[in-house]
TrEMBL record:
<dbReference type="InterPro" id="IPR029061">
    <property type="entry name" value="THDP-binding"/>
</dbReference>
<dbReference type="GO" id="GO:0004739">
    <property type="term" value="F:pyruvate dehydrogenase (acetyl-transferring) activity"/>
</dbReference>
<keyword id="KW-0670">Pyruvate</keyword>
<dbReference type="InterPro" id="IPR001017">
    <property type="entry name" value="DH_E1"/>
</dbReference>
<dbReference type="InterPro" id="IPR050642">
    <property type="entry name" value="PDH_E1_Alpha_Subunit"/>
</dbReference>
<protein>
    <submittedName>
        <fullName>Pyruvate dehydrogenase E1 component subunit alpha</fullName>
    </submittedName>
</protein>
<dbReference type="GO" id="GO:0006086">
    <property type="term" value="P:pyruvate decarboxylation to acetyl-CoA"/>
</dbReference>
<keyword id="KW-0786">Thiamine pyrophosphate</keyword>
<keyword id="KW-0560">Oxidoreductase</keyword>
<dbReference type="Pfam" id="PF00676">
    <property type="entry name" value="E1_dh"/>
</dbReference>
<feature type="domain" description="Dehydrogenase E1 component">
    <location>
        <begin position="17"/>
        <end position="313"/>
    </location>
</feature>
Amino acid sequence: MPAEEIDRALARRLLATMQLIRAFEEAVRDHFAARHIPGFIHLSIGQEAVAAGLASALEREDYLYVTHRGHGHVIAKGADLKRVAAEIFGKASGYCRGRGGSMHIAAFEVGVLGANGVVGAGLPHAAGAAWALQLQGRQQVAVAVFGDGAVNTGLFHETANIASLWRLPLLLLCENNGYAEFTPLSVHAAVESVAERAAAYRLPAWRVDGQDPLAVRAAVREALGRVRAGEGPALVECLTWRVRGHYEGDPQRYRSSTELEEAVAHDPLRLFAERLRREGLLNEAEEAEVAAQARQAVAEAIAYAQEAAFPDPASALEDVLYQPSGAG
């Protein structure tokens, strides 16, 4: 991968993004537990480095499709934190007017074309967006984020095949946290390396430490160099750790206490901050300042969401294509 000089500004930006995602999701966790948030919540605590590294290598205009565990990616791409919070709280001022909730956020202004609650469903959507970009002769790329569980669905294989065949400007990014919902990778995949499986479709592939935002950034930048040059799609597999359950409230009886302790030990925020201190790019006061700024931004976003109005019930059928009973 091409070497990149790590300067203080880049290091702080990556750390700030991870801190913001962590603070936001911890607040969402607490408010969900207090029954302030409807629906289901899927947190990416422990996986923040993937979102931060990926977003730092993208342009604002690039398209991004994410999963049901997508808060971090939406935030890292630059979405308005208050509108993200309002959407999760089901409020009218949210990105989808409170209709999408946690699993279906879209923020078109920053290129986030949607999250999806169906495993792997963002893959063909991203391929369609990439095809549109290709037909229009535009320089943007489309990115599909998916988990290891999606690789065993037809959606992954159909997308990888047609994208390779048509040389679409598409990046496939797998967040491999070792679990397809409640099922460990060793039980559901005969070949555990997603990067190896990319060879079946002649896709160049990278497999990187997903707890290191710089490693993720470097792999994505190299992959996107090929994609933007018209050489077709590429795949990046990020090995990461999911600290929380599949959904918030999941008792995680399928994981041992030792494994959970290991997941916590791989905390990307702590590991990255320690590295930056060793390399003289960050001191403890600066780290505390970044964390405090993240908490303040999150507190303001949550307060905004709590005070915002719910959608007017009279607007329930707006944006819905339907035919009134008795219409010809």
